[in-house]
Design brief:
mainly alpha, 2 domains, 3 helices
Length: 83
């Protein structure tokens, strides 16, 4: 019995960044895989964040406000559980 050949072997290349190989001229499938990789790597979020300069004091203020909001919701959830 012959061994089944694997035609989907990925070529070994040391390319940096995200890359997708196209099999059987299936560009739509490769594009879908690329979009998934971009979404999982948060690439667009990083680009959006670095679109313009934010002062360190602004980032601290933003983080502080988010922490206050999380605490507020945690307190409300705790009150709802106790009642």
């Amino acid at each position: 019995m012959r061994k089944k050949r694997n035609f989907r072997k990925k070529p070994k290349d040391n390319a940096q960044g995200l890359s997708v190989t196209v099999f059987n001229n299936n560009v739509d499938g490769a594009l879908r895989i690329l979009k998934k990789k971009v979404k999982e790597s948060n690439l667009f979020l990083d680009l959006r964040k670095n679109e313009y300069y934010t002062k360190p004091s602004e980032t601290k203020r933003h983080k502080r406000n988010l922490a206050k909001l999380r605490n507020k919701y945690a307190v409300e959830k705790e009150k709802a559980e106790n009642n």
